[in-house]
């Protein structure tokens, strides 16, 4: 073959190969076509739990995984890849009851006909505590704890307040460091008579309520090695007098990321907001009378302040219930309401409007808006999912005891405090067992 013909043949072959590669690349990068419908055919497996792999089959998915959203009810799954007609995803944690799988691409949203059967994989373990009801610092396996309220910072520190067993105080518990240590401890009240704890996870500042003096609360700043600082809220004369001469006990304080204020509630039903730097304070709502045993902000809707009221609430319709206050318009119509069924001192799972609790104590949320409730009188931990369903996630309703293990066999004895970390692990102040427990749900 003449050299020029041979060169020409090589060029033709190279062109064919390059064209083939480009066609293959174009096929691999084939995008979702918004002029055509998304077609869903099947998914596998049909059941599983969090972190399980799932394959979703259909048509017109496109191959750009970053443009594909997959939801199990309202819980978003991680999308790993897409071939155009098959999506590879990871099942999300706690999607709620009877999850339906939806695929969202651009403005199109399609739902599979079949439901996915979700099984929660849960395990309860003991973090620290021996059952002795006096505080004693030390390693996790030696320390004594009798905690009521808990909260966590972004670094994994657990903060616990206690007011029983012969002393009052606030402690720091760290699993990685294997240590329980007191930030302060005193043998008598009221310095401070600590109850609810809140943490600004951006700064790490811990704020603790002090129920007996209306303007006083305490803060612990990690930049100062969590040294205790007394803070005094600055109310107007009229607001302060209305608190002093009313039932002034404030069991909780919560940091609200929606507006950056601290919120506290007094037993006579007044809710106040406090500026975290100037400490200027204003009464923003007057609600029903009643002792309070839980308070939390929903991170998914950070203008919602939730609280649990005790059996002495007046009128009766607010007793032993979970309430919500809309901080965007706290005195507006419907600004304060009960979300679960009346009729406490009982047990019933199901839609929140039908659910019943028995002396519900502390409440906390995970980052997706699931609420966890220490159901003190029922000796169990309940969950209110983001889609409004109450289920029992650990403990045996109505049976007190102490046992680690799975959700069915685990036992608690009058759990009081709860806290949830960034990963969704739940910590429980198991009060009558004098231990801190940990519930991991996957």
UniProtKB/TrEMBL annotation:
Q: Which domain of life is it from?
A: Bacteria
Protein name, UniProt field: IPT/TIG domain-containing protein
- SUPFAM superfamilies, alphabetized: E set domains, NHL repeat
What's one Pfam family the UniProt record gives for this protein?
NHL
Q: Which residues form the IPT/TIG domain?
A: 39-117
Keywords, comma-separated and alphabetical: Repeat
Q: Which organism is it from?
A: Sphingobacterium olei
InterPro entries recorded for this chain? Answer: 6-blade_b-propeller_TolB-like, Ig-like_fold, Ig_E-set, IPT_dom, NHL_repeat
Stretches forming NHL repeats: 406-436
